[in-house]
């Protein structure tokens, strides 16, 4: 749940307001790219089998910006994101 002065908010409104996001499995941006972080809480996205990383999340079309499910839920109204082809557990989309 988002607090009035949430520590995760660090000027992201300037570049994430109203962007189109899609739920997708994480993949490295390019060869040699190790991981990415949630734009808000800094949880780690990676391809490996490590238990402490996220393997899917909401991403921009260029896959340069990643948002974890928790931060997405907390900030979706404030940021007015547009979600395309959201994938649900079991492979269904909505």
Question: Could you please describe the fold and organization of this structure?
Answer:
By secondary structure, the protein is an alpha+beta fold. It has two helices and six strands, in the order H-E-E-E-E-E-H-E. A four-stranded mixed sheet has the order 5-4-1-6. A hairpin with a 6-residue loop joins strand 2 (36-37) and strand 3. The mean pLDDT is 88.
The gist of it:
This protein has helices at 13-16, 69-79, and strands at 20-25, 36-37, 44-45, 56-59, 66-67, 82-83. With 94 residues, the protein is an alpha+beta fold.
Structural features:
alpha+beta, 4-stranded mixed beta sheet, 94 residues, two-stranded antiparallel sheet
How large is the count of helical segments?
2
What would you call the structural class?
A: alpha+beta
User: Helix fraction?
Assistant: 10-25%
Number of strands: 6
Strand order of the largest sheet: 5-4-1-6
Q: What topology emerges from the helices and strands here?
A:
Elements: H1 13-16, E1 20-25, E2 36-37, E3 44-45, E4 56-59, E5 66-67, H2 69-79, E6 82-83
Parallel strand pairs: 1-6
Antiparallel strand pairs: 1-4, 2-3, 4-5
